[in-house]
Design a protein that fits this description.
Layout (H helix, E strand, L loop, with lengths): L2 E5 L3 H6 L14 H11 L5 E12 L2 E12 L1 H9 L5 H8 L10 H8 L4 E10 L5 H19 L4 E8 L2 H9 L3 E4 L6 E6 H5 L5 H5 L11 H11 L4 H8 L3 H18 L15 H13 L9 H8 L2
Parallel strand pairs: 4-5
Antiparallel strand pairs: 1-2, 2-3, 3-4, 5-7, 6-7
Length: 310
């Protein structure tokens, strides 16, 4: 059973929420309000989500897993870790309509990513536990791989979640997360910090905190183009998506290739393709950014400069 994950945004996120209704976290605001908040989060720059799908479907079900996370304000994270108690996701969701929302805006995300690091709350993570064990493990691994890829390139400070399902609890134990049991419920707090991961370089958690500083200083518009292209959009599809003509899209590829070559001369000399044209150029640019996702993340260069200056 081939199982694959794919990034989802917008309406696709809303379609996936029915997979595990308990994870909607609506106890404080009610279901209708919670769904409205999820709808707003689904296209937020601090939000990410992945669907895990089976092909062919199992018992008519193609969706076999769904996960979602968000970059949280440090104050919310620090409160969670200093005084752990159940209802973490519900409090996060309830905060969103207020001025004190626990969700980072893009400027805050860029500032922290260039400085002390960003915090990730895993708001939703579930696979179909009715699957036979081999398929359950495959779906679980796909969900873990999705989280890794969607956060790769960020300077992570803390990753945490309130975990309900058995597979999630076992996964947290397997990766060496710190666990805090909530005896009055069937949930627990699972979290890991960069400091803990760095003290255990051979652990699975250490993979999540590897980080490289970006060097290309890409514009947000270029990052949007690249992310859409990495998701499979063609040049003809990118134009309408981004409000650009096809000739402008092609000019962006030329500009991006030149930017890479200026920053890293000879980076692609081994492929023997020279400057390349059309699809060759696009392929080589995308291959570079698959290896360097840090270039696609919000990053405040002024903050980085102040940090480097001490």
């Amino acid at each position: 059973m081939p199982v694959r994950w794919r990034r989802v945004k917008g309406a696709q996120v809303m379609e996936c929420l029915s997979f595990a209704p308990r994870n909607i976290a609506d106890s404080l605001v009610g279901r209708e309000k919670a769904l409205q908040i999820w709808r707003e989060l689904a296209d937020h720059p601090s939000f990410f989500a992945a669907a895990v799908e089976a092909d062919p479907p199992i018992a008519s079900h193609r969706l076999v897993g769904f996960g979602a996370g968000c970059f949280a304000r440090p104050a919310f994270t620090d409160e969670v870790l200093s005084a752990p108690r159940p209802g973490i996701h519900d409090r996060f969701i309830a905060s969103c309509p207020s001025a004190d929302s626990a969700v980072l805006n893009r400027a805050e995300l860029a500032h922290l990513n260039a400085g002390p690091g960003v915090d990730v709350i895993q708001l939703y993570g579930s696979v179909a536990e009715s699957l036979p064990m081999p398929q359950l493990m495959e779906a679980s691994m796909a969900l873990g791989a999705a989280f890794y890829e969607l956060t790769r390139g960020y300077r992570l400070r803390v990753v945490y979640a309130e975990v309900f399902c058995n597979y999630g609890k076992q996964y947290a134990r397997n990766v060496g997360a710190t666990l805090v049991e909530f005896p009055e419920t069937d949930s627990l707090l699972s979290y890991g910090t960069r400091e803990t991961a760095e003290r255990n370089p051979g652990s699975a958690a250490a993979l999540f905190v590897q980080y490289t500083e970006p060097v290309l200083a890409l514009r947000e518009a270029d990052q949007e183009l690249l992310l859409a292209a990495l998701d499979g959009a063609t040049d003809e599809e990118l134009g309408p998506m981004l409000g650009l003509s096809l000739s402008t899209v092609k000019a962006r590829w030329r500009s991006l290739l030149a930017r890479i070559e200026n920053a890293k001369p000879g980076w692609n000399a081994h492929d023997g393709n020279g400057d390349g044209r059309g699809p060759q150029r696009r392929h080589r640019v995308l291959a570079y950014f698959r290896k360097h996702p840090e270039e696609l993340r919000p990053y405040d260069r002024n903050m980085a400069s102040r940090k480097a200056a001490g």
